[in-house]
Amino acid sequence: MTSPLSSPNAESKPTGPRRRRRWLPIAAGVLATLVAVAGLGIGALQLGLPWQLGEGDRNHVYEGDAGSQRYQVHLPPRYDETVRLPVVMAIHGCGMTGYGWNSMKATTQFNRLADREGFIVVYPTQLISRNVIACWNSADPRHQQRRAGEPALLAGVARQVVEKYHADPAQVHVAGASSGAGTAVILAATYPDVFATATSVAGGEYGLNQVDPDNPDATPPLETARQAWAQMGERARRVPLLVVQGEQDDVVPTLVATRLVAQWTAVGDLVDDGLPNDSLGLTEKTVSVPAAAGRHAYAHSTVTAADGSSIVESYVVQDMGHAWPGPDGDGRYTDHAGPDATALVWEFAKRHPMPQ
């Protein structure tokens, strides 16, 4: 008897490549589904979902010659368009967002302070289409100039917020973390007519990309200071700078903050008469604050001109790494034992409105 398996009339089962070809459409469909889900997840983080907005939060998009920029605004309860409120722009660091999930809001807790003190918070967000890990491109010379790239976009956002929400143009301040800190310093150099003060938390100087980490002395801070001053052009003025740095930061070493203080001190000197000649009669003071229960020790330094105006203030925090310090921060890049950087930013801003 002939076996059905060997009968010439029996149907043969597909094997080898033919069977694998049946699975190709299925595998492709599964992959497409996974990509779509991942895309939705990234979109939710980057662009936001309705339930991610808190009370007083508004999402916006700025459109300008340099492109478009998404950002979130937080309005305090006392906002009613009749009083021109101050503005603080908070620029996130790498791997963070300022829109949708808004990890910068969680890290800094600026909204909580804004609700108490009565100022507007602005959170711009970097898109992964511009940087795959959501860093601001502060190390790219194309984003270190006025009327170009990210500086133009962020200055446009600040101006749009002032116009839309009737904010005080003399009290627009910028603070950033890590790559966002580098961008904040760039904004102080490129748009000193827009931002009254700047704060760098774990960031570096204007033109830091020109400094060789293995031979930093080859590029003195005065060299990059001249470039920052040149960017100011006819708008040049002394923009007060606040610097916060962790001594144990293995991403942005303490030397970077030291150079930033030296650079910005030199910028202030150049603004005065175009020469690095200490024409401002600068005074430097440092106060050491010892560690307390659950709190890091830190050194608070000030550089002031002879007329008492602030050039640079800095906080160098012992035992702190690459973080935004403060007791209430929530997220990966926080340090609850450090001084409250959010409060420091606001106190610094209140003392330094734009000169009229």
UniProtKB/TrEMBL annotation:
Which terms in the GO cellular component ontology are assigned? Answer: extracellular region
Q: Which UniProt keywords apply?
A: Hydrolase, Membrane, Signal, Transmembrane, Transmembrane helix
Database matches in InterPro entries: AB_hydrolase_fold, Esterase_phb, Plant_Biomass_Hydrol_Est
Cite a single Pfam family from the UniProt record. Esterase_PHB
TM segments?
Answer: 23-49
Q: Which domain of life is it from?
A: Bacteria
GO molecular function term, any single one: hydrolase activity
Please report the name of this protein according to its UniProt entry: Esterase
Source organism: Micromonospora radicis
